[in-house]
Specification:
44% helix
Length: 238
């Protein structure tokens, strides 16, 4: 399990998230563009200073989830129009526990003020929501991490991450997405049918396929061959 905090604004909240991870037996914390560079000294990480010190920093969500085969986002929903399946917390936790038996999972939390952006959400396979009341729908980041991790372990000890992933990892799916976009551009598809958010939409489409790693390799080979064929068919300038 990789807990990924995206653009967290308050170092105390990052420390509180690390403390919750330590409470429930999770060790892999990743942060993407934290607002405050000094988060590793947060006093709120009681009993979890070593975990906070070993947190991995990334510039993009894509890099942070590259080795994961399941990426789950969290959202308060509000008035947002979602493009992903939304799971109840207890059901989502069961799916995550099952997946951890065979592969790596990333659980994403957004900034305290804005949550996860649409671009960050496009890397997710599906989303979870903590059922808070409408009068005060947003939770503190550290509390949200604690609630989600508690749900993962409340029927026993924390799941053990798998050594080998059988499903395609996020980095493999990103290669597939990039090559699919290249096919669409080279073939002229996007010229005839412009799509404003094409990158995010294709990324979501590829993740909905839930591809095994070996199938991802096959599809990548097919698409690369299509790109080569399309380029070679174009008349040479001269």
């Amino acid at each position: 399990m990789r807990v990924v905090l995206v653009a967290a604004r308050n170092p105390l909240n990052i420390g509180a998230a690390a403390r919750a991870m330590s409470n429930f037996g999770f060790r892999r914390l990743r942060v993407v563009n934290p607002y405050e560079a000094g988060f590793r000294e947060a006093r709120s990480a009681v009993g979890a200073s070593a975990l906070l010190q070993s947190a991995e920093e990334y510039k993009t969500v894509a890099e942070a989830v590259a080795d994961c085969t399941l990426v789950v986002g969290t959202t308060a929903v509000r008035h947002r129009e979602l493009q992903h399946p939304l799971r109840r917390l207890e059901y989502g936790a069961r799916l995550i526990r099952k997946q951890l038996g065979s592969s790596r999972v990333a659980l994403l939390f957004g900034s305290e003020k804005f949550g996860l952006s649409n671009a960050a959400l496009s890397h997710c396979h599906w989303l979870m929501r903590i059922p808070t009341c409408e009068e005060n729908i947003s939770m503190n980041l550290g509390q949200a991490v604690a609630v989600c991790l508690y749900e993962l372990v409340r029927d026993g000890k924390a799941p053990r991450p798998a050594e080998d992933a059988k499903r395609a990892t996020s980095v493999e799916l990103e290669r597939l997405t990039t090559t699919l976009l290249e096919v669409m551009r080279t073939s002229g598809y996007l010229t005839r049918r412009p799509i404003a958010d094409v990158e995010e939409r294709m990324r979501r489409l590829v993740r909905r396929l839930i591809l095994p790693a070996r199938d991802a390799v096959v599809w990548l080979g097919i698409l690369r061959q299509a790109v080569w064929k399309l380029r070679s068919a174009k008349p040479q300038a001269g």
